[in-house]
Amino acid sequence: DHTARLWSTASGKCLLAFVGHRGWVFAATFSQDGQQVITASADHTARLWSTASGKCLLAFVGHRGWVFAATFSQDGQQVITASADHTA
């Protein structure tokens, strides 16, 4: 359904759905402080989300192929992506 979802480990209930990608979501990673999530998608984008609201904060656009992975730098100030377009 082109979403990433945040689930409660205690109840198994969905807490938030991150809606906005137009392709499969391949990966999701939390920031170190848990305030944000970065997702990687077949729609050629990575997106930054708020875990408080579920809203998209930024869309990282520029790849010409599926984005398979995205993760935060140790200090949380940067994001790196890896794509089927043979770039990172």
Q: Sheet bearing the most strands, described?
A: 4 strands, antiparallel
User: Tell me, what's the shape?
Assistant: globular
Rounded to the nearest angstrom, the distance between the terminal CA atoms is 26 Å
What is the alpha-carbon Rg in Å?
Answer: 13 Å
Number of strand elements: 8
Number of contiguous helices? 0
Could you spell the SSE succession in H and E letters?
A: EEEEEEEE
Helix content: under 10%
Uncertain stretches: none
What does the secondary structure layout of this molecule look like, with pairings?
Blueprint: E1 3-7, E2 14-19, E3 25-30, E4 36-41, E5 45-50, E6 56-61, E7 67-72, E8 79-83
Antiparallel strand pairs: 1-2, 3-4, 4-5, 5-6, 7-8
Characterise the protein shown here.
It is a single chain. By secondary structure, this protein is mainly β. The chain has strands spanning 3-7, 14-19, 25-30, 36-41, 45-50, 56-61, 67-72, 79-83. The strands form 3 sheets. A 4-stranded antiparallel beta sheet has the order 3-4-5-6, with no helix packed on it. Strands 1-2 form a two-stranded antiparallel sheet. A two-stranded antiparallel ribbon has the order 7-8. A hairpin with a 5-residue loop joins strand 5 (45-50) and strand 6. The radius of gyration is 13 Å and the shape is globular. The protein starts with a strand and ends in a 5-residue tail after the last strand. The mean pLDDT is 97.
